[in-house]
Amino acid sequence: MRIFYCQDHDGYWPVGVASLILAQDVPEAIALLDEQLEGRRLKTHKDQPYTLIEVVANGPKAIIINGGDY
Prior knowledge:
Elements: E1 2-6, E2 19-23, H1 26-39, E3 53-55
Antiparallel strand pairs: 1-2, 1-3
């Protein structure tokens, strides 16, 4: 499994969003995130493209996805 995060997908309010996705590859990650977005009536990758960032988990690591610095 690969680890991806996204911080620019559609959201309810004009504030930061962040999602974590575990998938075999990018197409599966998009499909999984889109399924969750659709379930919340938010725009999917097709309607509002977003960026997936892969986390290489090769050792201890901390990543701040959203530090509130808008």
